[in-house]
Amino acid sequence: MAFMTIRERFLDCLIGSDVDKIPVCSVTQTGTVELMEATGSYWPEAHYNPEKMATLAIGAHKIVGLEGVRYPFDGTDIGQALGCEIKNGTLDSQPSIYKSPCQTKEDALNFSISENILDSERLSTLLDATKIIRGRVGEDVPIIAGMVGPAAIATCIVGVTNYLMWCITNPEIIKHLLKIGTDICIDYSNALLEHGADAICIPDSESGPDLLPPSCFETLFLPLYKKISSNTTGPMILHMCGDATDILDSMAITGFEGLSIEEKVNTKYANDVIGKRACLIGNVAPVDILLSSQPSDVIKDAQRCMDDGVNILAPGCGLAPHTPTKNLKALVYARNEYYKN
């Protein structure tokens, strides 16, 4: 097979084309304390400054060897743009939402967004960071932008307690908010792609079976994901935290090119269910293996993933801030050694 750049390999994997070897990267957050120290770009500033965000994100590629640049490092940007009040986070903790804009049913039913939401400070930061990253890494490195999905956006607007309760007692409220979230995902994804991103990863675990019955995924969320995938201009990746086993078949028909799963899902089973309908991404355990174990354990778990048929080798979820660089390098080493045999 002819030489492939890591960007070509990543994009070909997402559309199901043959590649010389599977990519090794992360489609979820990559900021770690050791990488902050190595790049001089630290949380919480790197969440809000596009130059610092770009520097830290590129560090996971330049220093570790991950075959892609993934940013941002948290999921509060859309929420803040919608009026959520957030805690800024610290060196080793991500920003978090502590107050949602809608506390009552009436507020939620009347909630709307401004036409210029993409001009908000947080979202503009991400768009600026995209251009900076593309300018620094050139055309041969894939850029993966992350954003929360419609279920997470609805949760941001009303808070998790109201979200879970109203999904059952007042579904019309949740459907209203989900439509808003879907429209934001489409517009924001296309803007990120226009600014230089190659793919968009949408973590949306608030739609998953860890919080709601699996039947809700098919009836409530599947049509929204299909709308997102059919109205965006580049490859889309759906990331599902927790045990997504019961919704794998539905995830495979969302139209998203990539599906990212945690280690709670049996990778071989997931591969059997999904087949050629989507690119399977994962699922080395981010805490039990990448954070808490030794490089030899990382290599062993990575080999399991590749034996089970993942199409892109990656952490099963976002990296814990204190994940050691040696373990991330072991992930890359494991992929390289796998193809020497």
Walk me through what this model shows.
This protein is an alpha/beta fold. The protein has one domain (24-293, 310-338): TIM Barrel, CATH 3.20.20. It is built from 16 helices and 9 strands. Strand 5 (199-203), helix 11 and strand 6 (236-240) form a beta-alpha-beta unit. It starts with 5 loop residues before the first helix and ends with a helix.
CATH topology: TIM Barrel
Give the CA-CA distance, first to last residue.
Answer: 17 Å
- Mean of residue pLDDT values: 97
Number of strands: 9
Instruction: Tell me what portion of residues adopts beta-strand conformation.
Output: 5-15%
CATH class: Alpha Beta
Main-sheet strand order equals 1-4-5-6-7-8-9
Q: Enumerate the spans where pLDDT stays under 50 for 5 or more consecutive residues.
A: none
Taking the sheet with the most strands, its summary is: 7 strands, parallel
Helix-residue proportion: 40-55%
CATH architecture label name: Alpha-Beta Barrel
Q: Give the total of domains.
A: 1
Radius of gyration: 19 Å
What is the overall shape? globular
